[in-house]
Amino acid sequence: MTLIDGKAVSAQIKEEIAAEVAEILKNGGKRPHLAAILVGHDGGSETYVASKIKACEICGFKSTLIRFEADVTEEKLLDAVRQLNADADVDGFIVQLPLPKHISEQKVIETIDYRKDVDGFHPINVGRMAIGLPCYISATPNGILELLKRYNIETSGKKCVVLGRSNIVGKPMAQLMMQKRVPGDATVTVCHSHSKNIKEECLSADIIIAALGQPNFVTADMVKEGAVIIDVGTTRVPDPTKKSGFHLNGDVKFDEVAPKCSFITPVPGGVGPMTIASLLNNTLLAGKKEIYK
Amino acid sequence: MTLIDGKAVSAQIKEEIAAEVAEILKNGGKRPHLAAILVGHDGGSETYVASKIKACEICGFKSTLIRFEADVTEEKLLDAVRQLNADADVDGFIVQLPLPKHISEQKVIETIDYRKDVDGFHPINVGRMAIGLPCYISATPNGILELLKRYNIETSGKKCVVLGRSNIVGKPMAQLMMQKRVPGDATVTVCHSHSKNIKEECLSADIIIAALGQPNFVTADMVKEGAVIIDVGTTRVPDPTKKSGFHLNGDVKFDEVAPKCSFITPVPGGVGPMTIASLLNNTLLAGKKEIYK
């Protein structure tokens, strides 16, 4: 069994990006610039945005953080988005989700210029991904593809079961795994809350991508010997032994499943660290204008 | 076994649309207007476009046909698209595919204003469909959903195997069948040229949607008793007994598969006739500005 070390891969990708940025600057090119809009003071969002900014520093990117209080009006937020769209120095930007309930996330996402949408949530990027055209692929699916690639995990012709059909993980993951390319070319099954026979589907899977947000959902009796397990779950489970008061729990019952696997991602330290690497990579692509002119 | 009569359903939908158009006109509303661009003189394309125009007449739509010779430049074609985008009287329009090789179909599709893209091929419509937002759904998947709906075929929690991963049928069909709605909520598996175990996947399917373009691919030994079969295949097979010199052959070996099914679509007369009904329905939605303002 090989433990997939997302933390190490993520660090390596950041090093590669930093080296490329250094090369760009040496040749007189422009420093990639990522901006982030943060609304309110949600603890999780604060942590994520801080990590993104820190990662920008590591990679030699310029970063800008724009903050609003939680009572900002939708119109004011949309104005900030439009300003970033128009700012030629900003290569890509994100609006950290979730947003307060009085603001339409979808409206905000669709106001972002798709050419700067490094989160890959704009319908144009989602659509281009489905069609198989160059685009910004959102962070988690992109990170999983990268792990599969760097661990040389065979996907062509394999049965891949995706658990969960969220717009940010399950659905895009399914679409990516069925594309005509590598990683891809898999026979893909998507299971969700309405599915019967989830156990049978999982038992026939060569690759399981678990993104349900249900701690310990995947148990040993659901997994075929030699399967590859990608665990996207990161549920915060109260834990008095931790300083933070919680620990992150994956969708997979790791201790009993791991011995049966050929490859498995731990939680934490598997898929999680890859998301920021994906965002940085999209920003680098944006800076180089590789996807869109 | 119930034979799904796409021809009858399509005729019924056209009647419903015609009645709604009459109502709109009675209330002083605008007659829906579909425009079509046809390049060259391909026999199939000529036939399709002619049927679409005839269907417009039946439904009380205004229709406009714009023709170009096969040697039209890409720029000239794009100009025509831009003119239709700007023409306030045109509610929706299509560019009949395929186009001559010197013209980029993708560029043409992306030049169409997504608000008038009643074929549903623009990345914005594809992306919105994947996310589950209101949009123009392309003709064939939309037609299949409509058949499932009108025949009250249960899809929630059912296993649906989609054979084929084309951008115009397989992929969107898979996305639609897994959405949180009815028809939808199915456990979806997509099989294609790289898949192993296609037979096993099909044997466990409650619903099979065959869109491979391989005549007679689905045989009786691949189908579970009581399954629902939707046959999207329309391969032209040479046939000297026919006036046209060919007959249309589905992806399903109908004679041996039909007796095992609860529902099955014939070829021709199943999914085929539904595509034009879907296009008309999208045009009606465009005329009413129901999806986009």
> How would a crystallographer describe the biggest sheet of chain A?
6 strands, parallel
CATH topology of the largest domain in chain A: Rossmann fold
The portion of residues forming beta strands of chain A comes to 15-25%
* Most extensive chain interface and residues per partner: A-B, 41 and 40 residues
The portion of residues assigned to helices of chain A is: 25-40%
Number of strands of chain A: 11
Count of structural domains of chain A:
2
Structural class of chain A: alpha/beta
List keywords for this structure.
homodimer; 293 residues; alpha/beta; Rossmann fold; 2 domains; 6-stranded parallel β-sheet
Task: Describe this structure in a few short sentences.
With 293 residues, chain A is of the alpha/beta class. Chain A contains ten helices and eleven strands.
What does the model show?
Two copies of one chain form a homodimer. By secondary structure, chain A is α/β, with parallel strands linked by helices. Chain A has two domains: 26-121, Rossmann fold (3-Layer(aba) Sandwich), CATH 3.40.50; 139-274, Rossmann fold. In chain A, 39% of the residues lie in helices and 16% in strands. Chain A has ten helices and eleven strands. Chain A has helices at 6-26, 43-59, 74-86, 105-111, 123-131, 139-150, 170-177, 198-203, 254-257, 272-287; strands at 2-3, 33-39, 62-68, 92-95, 159-163, 187-191, 207-210, 228-231, 235-238, 246-249, 263-264. Chain A has a six-stranded parallel β-sheet. In chain A, strands 3-2-4 form a three-stranded parallel β-sheet, with helices on both faces. In chain A, strand 5 (159-163), helix 7 and strand 6 (187-191) form a beta-alpha-beta unit. Chain A starts with a strand and ends in a 6-residue tail after the last helix. The interface between A and B is large, with 41 and 40 residues. Strand 6 of chain A pairs antiparallel with strand 6 of chain B.
